[in-house]
Amino acid sequence: MLFPLVEMVRQPSLADMRETLFDPDVVRAIGLSLFASTMAALISLVLGTPFAYLLARRQFPGKRLLESVVDLPIMIPHPVVGIAILSIAGRNHWLGRMLLDAGVEIMGTVTGLVTVLTFVGLPFYVNTVKAGLDSIPQRLENVSRSLGASAGETFFRVTLPLAWRHMVVGMIMCTARAVSEFGAVIIVAYHPMVAPVMIYERFTAYGLRYSQPVAVWLILICLALFLLMRLFSGPGRNRR
């Protein structure tokens, strides 16, 4: 694993790396990747937290099937994700017609990018937060409820202080997964161009010399995200 990554990072010259860093197109593509991925992580925080809580705290018929559906975007080929999103985003589908009538376009827009990246990143957030909630004794919540606290008060006063690190780690994982997405993006929004699409385009048009420096910067960004994740997921963080 390490050898090809080290070789790719080593091969571009410092001049090439510096030139790439100040290339407006590269800065725009990497910035768009980070923006869309961060938006996907924030959406996952809002939508995924109550869903993860439901999966962690409730037993109901079909739960295993639902958990498997949540994991599907991790396993299925990602061009299929793009095709699935496009199949409901055009005028041939009632939802697509509603969105277009409301002025919301998916194909070739930042909205489409965020939609795709949320789709592929949400499972990582949900699974991470669910694992964190599973590690919190439910008796603590039961004691809070028995003392008269509402479900909302219990979540914000008991569960959230114990689970917030898992939520941060889940958001970082979601961001890291989203920032590297390629297969679904080229189906839904080739333009505006994000970093993985730019790397592909420069490689097919100009070869390794012009694609490697962009790839190295993306690798360094992903490495920084995972180092940050390790800081929040260190052993004993939530123990008393």
What would you say this structure looks like, in words?
This protein is an all-alpha fold. The protein has one domain (2-57, 66-232): MetI-like fold (Orthogonal Bundle), CATH 1.10.3720.10. Helices cover 78% and strands 0% of the residues. The chain contains twelve helices and no strands. It has helices at 2-10, 14-21, 24-57, 63-75, 78-87, 94-101, 110-134, 138-146, 151-179, 183-188, 195-206, 208-232. The two termini are 37 Å apart.
Blueprint of the fold:
Elements: H1 2-10, H2 14-21, H3 24-57, H4 63-75, H5 78-87, H6 94-101, H7 110-134, H8 138-146, H9 151-179, H10 183-188, H11 195-206, H12 208-232
Helix pairs in contact: 2-12, 3-7, 3-9, 4-7, 5-7, 7-9, 8-9, 9-12, 11-12
Features:
12 helices, MetI-like fold, 240 residues, mainly alpha
**How far apart lie the N and C ends?**
37 Å
What structural category characterises the helix and strand content?
Answer: mainly alpha
CATH topology tier name: MetI-like fold
Counted beta strands: 0
Which consecutive residue ranges, at least 5 long each, have pLDDT under 50?
Answer: none
Question: Main β-sheet, in a few words?
Answer: none
What proportion of the residues form beta strands (DSSP E)? under 5%
C-alpha Rg, in Å?
A: 21 Å
User: How many separate domains make up the residues?
Assistant: 1
Shape: globular
- Average predicted confidence as pLDDT: 91
CATH class: Mainly Alpha
Fraction of helical residues = over 70%
H/E element sequence: HHHHHHHHHHHH
CATH architecture: Orthogonal Bundle
Separate helix tally = 12
Q: What is the CATH homology-level superfamily?
A: MetI-like
